[in-house]
Design a protein that fits this description.
Blueprint (H helix, E strand, L loop, with lengths): L16 E6 L2 H8 L9 E4 L6 E4 L1 H5 L12 H6 L3 E4 L2 H16 L5 E5 L2 E5 L8 H15 L4 E6 L2 H14 L5 E3 L3 H10 L10 H9 L5 H5 L3 H19 L17 E11 L2 H21 L2 E12 L10 E12 L2 H15 L7 E13 L13 H18 L39
Parallel strand pairs: 2-4, 7-8
Antiparallel strand pairs: 1-6, 1-7, 2-3, 5-6, 9-12, 10-11, 10-12
Helix pairs in contact: 6-7, 11-12
The structure holds a DNA duplex (18 and 18 nucleotides).
Length: about 425
DNA sequence: TCTGGGGTCCTAGGACCC
DNA sequence: TCTGGGGTCCTAGGACCC
């Protein structure tokens, strides 16, 4: 098998990865602006106030389960004095940017892995004491932004992920773990169960357990061809990574997305086609904006609708359809009309109560590679100018300041968000006031 | 009343072509 | 006994991540 990474290893002395992960990120963000919540359990809910998607340590301790529907916890939250928040992505996104900027000051290169995590390139640093560097990072983020983080440092990405978890579980007060030698790596692999290993999900954990494999250490001792056969090349890559062979490449530059999806539950179940049309138009326009932001156009548009699968006594129906664009596009009006065309085809009237719908744009290509269709009647340059102006205004004045006439957006389609905090950091009207 | 949303990658199987 | 073989493209479905 050998080493399977492709970067310029001839010029490098060694690989070393740090994974910095914010603790309970969304809950920590909310707490930042309401210090009186210190010590109180906090939960953050998904869109529509549907499920629990973030919990403070206190909430974890009293048994709030990730992903559970919020309504099941109503009483429990009240009884236990839990502070409940709707998600406030504007706030989290802004705090994330600040964390990443601070991290970027420590290393030549970093890879932003998600809103609350980044891999730092620690190979070939002049720094000799990486553990100390991890501690410095943690301290700086706490001081500059006020968000607690943990740091895991190891010779591969998968091991750095594991080191991070190990830091959280085994060295909570320090919050940093450096898997500096084989002995420490072995301890960590023995400590971590397969189901808590990055890259092993529920299905594979069950498969491994059936084969008497319970820890990551035992997983690394399985024969490579068994892993390849049962868990595909993805599993094999992970197996190598956990054995100290880097296989997952750096992605320092965010790649343009290959698909973009905007989907959401309709506030409540409905069979009213006009409500669904409205939601679809809205999702389509969000897709178009996301396309323009990454300078791509789509060749296909997909629409999906579905009834509520949790309602066992309701008639069920779900369907999706893809149509090809005449000319690849990112124009709001065009994407909306394609999406509505799709909806027309798959919408089934009758006793079906729809719960969710969405729009996907597929087969994305760079904006300036469009093959112009000779029979294309649209004035695309004009469209482009109008949309650019629209995006600028919306960015400056807040989204939906300017909309296309086809976006029939009114009060019928609105997300539920009963507990939103303020945009403390991005909106002057909601900035924190301090009494002196 | 109320059960998230947005992604990626891999595999298998069918259609089609030469 | 023994259905040709190999390539590509497309789609659906599965598994995983945050």
């Amino acid at each position: 098998m050998g080493r399977c990474y492709n970067h310029h290893h001839s010029t490098r002395r060694h690989d070393m990865y740090a994974l910095v992960d914010c603790n309970n990120f969304y809950a920590s963000c909310e707490r930042l602006f309401q210090p009186h919540l210190n010590g109180r359990p906090i939960v953050v809910l998904s869109n529509n106030d549907g499920c629990v998607i973030a919990r403070s340590d206190e909430a974890k301790e009293i048994g709030v389960v990730m992903g559970t529907p919020a309504y099941m916890f109503q009483e429990f939250f009240k009884k236990n004095n839990v502070a409940v928040f709707s998600s406030n992505y504007t706030l989290y996104g802004d705090l994330s940017d600040r964390v990443m900027t601070t991290l970027a000051g420590f290393v030549p290169r970093l890879e932003i892995y998600s809103i609350d995590e980044a891999f730092l390139d620690m190979g070939d640093l002049a720094y000799t004491d990486l553990l100390q560097l991890g501690l410095d990072i943690k301290k700086m983020i706490a001081k500059n932004i006020g968000i607690p983080v943990c740091v895991g440092i190891a010779p591969t990405k998968a091991l750095a992920k594991m080191a991070n978890r190990y830091a959280k579980k085994k060295c909570k007060s320090v919050g940093v773990f450096y898997a500096a030698n084989q002995e420490l790596i072995k301890d960590m692999l023995e400590f971590t169960e397969v189901e808590n290993t990055w890259g092993i999900g529920r299905q594979h954990a069950l498969l491994l357990n059936r084969n008497n494999i319970y820890t990551a250490k035992e997983f690394t001792e399985m024969p490579a061809d068994w892993v390849r056969k049962k868990m595909s090349v993805v599993g094999l890559r992970l197996w190598n990574e956990l054995r100290g062979v880097p296989c997952i490449e750096w992605e320092f530059e965010p790649k343009a997305k290959k698909n973009i999806c905007t989907s959401r539950s309709l506030g409540k179940i409905t069979n009213d086609l006009s409500v669904i049309k409205e939601a679809i138009s809205n999702h389509a326009s969000v897709c178009a904006l996301k396309l323009r932001n990454q300078h791509t156009v789509c060749r296909k548009v997909q629409v999906l609708i579905a009834t509520n699968p949790h309602k066992l006594n309701h008639k069920q129906y779900s369907h999706s359809i893809v149509i090809e664009c005449e000319t690849p596009t990112n124009a709001t009006g065009e994407i909306i009309s394609y999406a509505l065309k799709c909806l027309d085809i798959i919408y089934k009237p009758g006793d079906y109560l729809y719960m969710k719908c969405g729009v996907l744009v597929l087969d994305l290509i760079p904006q300036h590679h469009i093959q112009v269709n000779l029979f294309d009647v649209r004035n695309r340059q004009r469209d482009e100018k109008i949309l650019l102006a629209m995006d600028k205004i919306n960015k400056l004045m807040g989204k939906d300041t300017v909309r296309m006439a086809v976006q029939r957006f009114d009060r019928r389609f609105r997300l539920r968000a009963d507990h939103v905090s303020k945009k403390y950091t991005t909106n002057f009207k909601e900035i924190l006031k301090i009494k002196i």
